[in-house]
């Protein structure tokens, strides 16, 4: 299930081919500090098990997938898919399903700051939705 949800939000860095692309752009120290804790996710699904909102009726993508959106939206190459990731979190099963019960952050064995990720990504989704409204 977690892998399906990671696919939904395109939780990867897009790479154009398998040839040597050389060294990629560098992460700033600030971005490294933000990204490192998020990169420690082991896909154990504990956060989803503990979440009162994670069930078939909501179709919620869950805290781990949202946190990976924050990780890849921070990455200089991963950012290329930022818009698509945020679009995937709008509507049913998206970030608004979160009731902010915080069970996820308490149970995560890797101490990933999941509620911070949810707030941060929630802000990104909101800014994109508002921007889209003005573009219409
Ligand atoms: S904050 Fe609560 S509702 Fe939101 S993902 Fe975590 S456990 Fe689920
Ligand atoms: S509980 Fe933590 S380590 Fe496990 S899937 Fe969720 S975010 Fe990842």
List descriptors.
136 residues; mainly alpha; Fumarate Reductase Iron-sulfur Protein, Chain B, domain 2; 7 helices; binds iron/sulfur cluster
Provide a brief overview of the structure.
The chain has seven helices and no strands.
Plain-language structure description:
By secondary structure, this protein is mainly α. It has seven helices and no strands. Helix 2 runs antiparallel to helix 4 and helix 4 packs across helix 7. The chain is globular and about 45 Å long. The site of one iron/sulfur cluster has 14 residues, from helix 3 and helix 4.
Count of helical regions: 7
Which small molecules are bound?
iron/sulfur cluster
* Tally of discrete structural domains: 1
CATH top-level class: Mainly Alpha
Give the mean pLDDT.
Answer: 94
Shape: globular
**CATH superfamily, please?**
Alpha-helical ferredoxin
Give Rg in angstroms: 15 Å
